[in-house]
Design a protein that fits this description.
Blueprint lengths: L12 H5 L6 E6 L11 H5 L4 E3 L7 E3 L11 E7 L3 E8 L5 E4 L15 E2 L1 E4 L5 E4 L1 H9 L2 H4 L3 E4 L3 H5 L8 E3 L5 E3 H24 L8 E7 L5 H14 L10 E5 H9 L7 E4 L10 H19 L4 E3 L6 H4 L6 E7 L4 E9 L4 E11 L4 H15 L1 H10 L1 H15 L10 E4 L2 H11 L3 H7 L5 E4 L3 E4 L1 H23 L9 E5 L6 H11 L4 E5 L5 H11 L4 E5 L3 E9 L10 E4 L2 E12 L4 E3 L2 E9 L6 E9 L13 E9 L14 E7 L4 E7 L4 E6 L6
Helix pairs in contact: 3-13, 6-7, 8-18, 11-12, 11-16, 12-13, 16-17
GO biological process, one term: import into nucleus
Organism: Sciurus vulgaris (Eurasian red squirrel)
Subcellular location: Cytoplasm; Nucleus
Length: 692
Amino acid sequence: MMESVGVYGFCGCKAKNKMKCDSRWEITAAETAPTSAYSSPARSLGDTGITPLSPSHIVNDADPNVSEQQTFLVVVAIDFGTTSSGYAYSFTKEPECIHVMRRWEGGDPGVSNQKTPTTILLTPERKFHSFGYAARDFYHDLDPTEAKQWLYLEKFKMKLHTTGDLTMDTDLTAANGKKVKALEIFAYALQYFKEQALKELSDQAGSEFENSDVRWVITVPAIWKQPAKQFMRQAAYQAGLASPENSEQLIIALEPEAASIYCRKLRLHQMIELSGKAAVNGYSASDTVGAGFAQAKEHVRRNRQSRTFLVENVIGEIWSELEEGDKYVVVDSGGGTVDLTVHQIRLPEGHLKELYKATGGPYGSLGVDYEFEKLLCKIFGEDFIEQFKIKRPAAWVDLMIAFESRKRAAAPDRTNPLNITLPFSFIDYYKKFRGHSVEHALRKSNVDFVKWSSQGMLRMSPDAMNALFKPTIDSIIEHLRDLFQKPEVCTVKFLFLVGGFAEAPLLQQAVHAAFGDKCRIIIPQDVGLTILKGAVLFGLDPAVIKVRRSPLTYGVGVLNRYVEGKHPPEKLLVKDGTRWCTDVFDKFISADQSVALGELVKRSYTPAKPSQLVIVINIYSSELDAVSFITDPGVKKCGTLRLDLTGTSGTAVPARREIQTLMQFGDTEIKATAIDVATSKSVKVGIDFLNY
C-alpha cells in the first residue's frame, strides 16, 4: 500500500532552514478544467490527484545554468521613481565609469535636474506625446479649455503599491479625470527611457546601438508585493526592453539592494556622517545636518558637468570596517515609499544577505505634498480645491511646482519665511467661485502661520512648513523604532540614509536625534542618485546579492491519506476503496525563508491513480506561514503545470510513477517545472500573480 508524507513533510528543508512554508500546489487529474482555488478540485472533478512520494526526494541547489550569463556591451539602469526618474549606464569593458543621462531640457529653480519628473502626457487621441519636463511644460502652456482634452499623469507609480487587486487591466486616472490603462502608461514611460538611452549610446558610439546589446535594470521598492514587481516586468516586455523568451536581459532590482551595493564602494570624501564623533570631511557633527550637506551638494553640483562618476574598484573605507556577520540598515526614502532593509555582510567576497524581510510603507515625500493640500483645503475649502484641480489642472501643477522648490528650502534652523507663489488663475478662479478674495479667505481661516503677501504669495512661517513634514517623518521614525526592536536588528553597525527624500535636512535631523546613539548614520553625498548608480553596479555583477527572504509561502495542492481525527470530515474523498484528504497545501518554501538566487527546490509526487495520463499541478501562494489547505483564507492560485503523458504507454513505466516538481527562484521571477522521470517529458511555467 502506498504511503504518503504529511503536509509538513518538507524532507530536510524544514530542519535545515528552520522555516515554515505557506503555499500548496494542488495536483489533480485534468480531463476537465481545474476549478478555483476555493473549491475542492479533486472532489469536483471526480478524479484522483497526486500524492507526495515517500521518501520525497528533496534537493536544494543552484541551477548550474544560472551562471551562464548572456554577454552585453552595456548595462542601462532605470530608476523609475514616484516623483522623478532617470537612467544611468556603464559599458561592461569600463565598469568603473558610470555615466548619468544627458541633462534634461527644462528644470525648476531650486531643484536639480539630474533626473526628470515622472510625468507623462498623452494626446486627446490617447497617443504618447511627451515625458518629464517636456510633458509638464507643454501641458502648462495649453489653453485651459484645450488642456481638459489632454491626458496628463504624475506620481502614478504609487498606484502599484496601493492597489490590492492589481491586474493587467488596472486603470490610472489622468488630471482631467479620464481613465487609462496603467500597463500602457508604464510601458510608454519605459519605452521613452529605452529610446533616450539607445539614442545617447548611439551618439556616443558613433554607430547604431542595438537593444540586444543592452542589459536593462529597473529598480522597484523592496516592499512592493509580487504582483507589482511582475507588473513592472510585463510593462518592460511591452516596451520592448526584453521579452519573456529572453527574460535575463532584464533585471528587476530592489531599490535598497541597489543602494547597498553602491554604499560598499563609498570613499570617505563621497559621504557625510551624521554623528557626534570627530569631524568628517571637514564638517563637525553640528555642521553636518543642513550646512555641511548643502556644501556637499554644491560640490556635487559643480562636478556634475561631466556626468561620469568614477567608481573605484575597491571596497570603501567604511565598508572595510565591516566584519563577517556585521549588519546594517538601508533606509531608502523616496517620493512615494520608504523601504527599510537589513543586510548582513558575508566575507570574503563581501556578498550581501538579506537578514530581515523588507518593511516600510507609503511614507515618502508625497506625504508632505498631501499635508500642503490639506492646509489649502483648510484655508480655501475642500470644495474649491477639488473644483480647481479639475477646472484648472495645469495651474494646479504650477502651484505644486512652486511648493516643491520651497519644500526643499525647509530646514531645522531656518528663521525667515518661505514664499509660495499662487498662480494668477488660482486667485482669479477663487474670486469667481467664492465671490471674495484670496486675502479675505486667509484672514477668515484662523491659520495664523500662513499670511498673504501683496506680491501674490502665501507666506509660510518656518514652523508652518516644518509642521507639514511632521506626520511623514514621525511615521518613518516610528517604523525604524519598531525595526530596531527586532532581535536581528538591535546590533546594527551602520544606517545608510538614501533616496531623494534623504536630502531633506528635517529628515536627517530626526533620524540623527532618534538613532545617532545606536549606530553610525551615513548619507552618500549625491544621495538622490545612489540607487541609480547602485543599480548599474548590480547589472554589471548580479551575483553580488546572494540571499533574499521569500516574501510568500509557495506550494502545491495534493492528496494525502485521510487520518481520522486529524483531517476535517469535509475533506474526505473515497476513491477505489482508498480514503484521501483533498486540498492539502504541500509547502515548497515558507514566507520569510532564506532563498539563494537561482536556488532550486525539488519535490517528488506520484499520481494517486497509476493510470492517470494528464496531470495538472496547481501552484498556490500565501502571505501566511501556517497554511494547511488550499482553501484556507489568503491562499491564492498563481500558476498551473499541465503535464500530458498520453502517447507514453509503450515506455516501461514503474508502478509508482515519479513526477518531479521543481521551483527556481530568480530576481523577482519564480519558474516551476514538472518532469515525468520515466519519460523525461517536462512542462514549465512562470509564477503569475496578475492573471489568476
